[in-house]
Amino acid sequence: MRGFDSRHPLQARSGRRSQVVRQSSAKAPPPVRFWASPPIIALVAAFLATALAGPLIGVGQLDAASGAQIRLTNARSDLDELLRIQLDEETALRGYVSTKNPLFLDTQDLPTAFDERARALEDRLRPAAIPGANGTVEEMRRYHAQWEREVKRPLLADPSSPNAAQEQAEGKFITDQMSRDARTLRDQLTNESRRVEQTLRRRINATVAISAGIITVFAIAALWYAIGRATAMARLVQGQILVDALQRTLRVNGQRPPRTQMGYAYASATREALIGGDVLDAWRPNPERGWFLIADASGKGVEAARHAAFAQYAIRALAAGADDPADVVTRFNTLFIDTFESDDPTVFVVLFLGVFDARTQTLRYASAGHGTAYVRRGTLTERLPPTGPIVGLGPGEDYATETVPLAVGDIVLLATDGLGEARSTEGEMLGEERVAALLRDAPSDPQALCDLLVAAADAYSGGVQDDLAIIALRVVQEEESASAEFSPIGESASA
Predict the structure, then answer these.
(1) Do residues 147 and 257 both lie within one domain?
(2) Longest Cα separation, the chain
(3) What's the pTM value of the predicted model, to 2 decimals?
């Protein structure tokens, strides 16, 4: 991303240890005399011939194996590029459907690029002769054509169609099939790469068996590789620990809004560290008012965590002394675009910013494309619709503030798309209707509600597939004496 250096200023420092080399005062031994004789000359000649032949044979084998590995690596690169092209098409279509902005349609040449890349991939796979590989690529081409025909063209023709959501869901199912084919092909390429490596290893072992010098060289090379790999793994672990520690440091503790009970849950899809693109926060500017925020930065892992941490700190700063959520979101949209200077439509933030006034028991909020937002009044649920587009699409976007009266016992639920878009093994999403039903029948305790939703998403999808954050607020009659502070990182807990 332009204008941003992702390297951290902390650098590991290694100490230096001086060594002293002591020279012996003993006399050097007399030189060894070499007596030339026909048998010795023959043995030396045979050794030299073997030493020369061994590397030549090894070089030929290495060259053949390297060529095969290069072809397989290029095939994997083509496969990754194929998926990137499909993702770009999906992103452009989603952006156009959401905003009706024709600028998202600048990628109309991508279908041609998809077919060209697929043909290039098939050409690379033919010399490898991997059974079924070209058939898998052809099936991906058919799925892509089906997506173009049944999803993209109808949505381009009528983005406001009442069937748009269903068509996008069907499109997601088709692209999931493409992803499964891609995983199958990637596994085939990996297995073929392993087979090439195993064949090379057997030939090298047969060659080095007749050459002591080759065995020594390969032993040294293997030792060097093991040391290098161990060093790289140690650095990777240290980097993961550092990123995790920095993420925990960046996320500040919050304070639940006054006269509320609060529950929350946070889960990251990044397995290497407890980091992700979802953020939840709440704080009090004074004893009678409380802000709360839930945001979802695009992507996963460290890059998404950067945007999420920026959103948390920037919105806190912009909300200082403010009382209009729409004004805060509008200024944050401008700040986000100016800071990251990205024209990439896949870089965005979806958020819901609310402020609760305990004196009037009213909620005022601005929602930048946030979908899962509800108020439960008894057994009735009311959706809180977005009041503006997602953050990052472009400067000058308009956001509105909505006012919602709340009564004692009412519950406000917010969740990022990791909840509603949790998918079953068949590719079906959990969906907002199921989320609303779970909310309607859930217990009134906010933390129990959050735990129930996390368990439901986990059981439905078989594990966390996307970053997930949930906030539940319940209006109470009197301010509780318990501490209002909470920390959203680590584990769910009630405040």
Answers:
(1) no
(2) 109
(3) 0.52
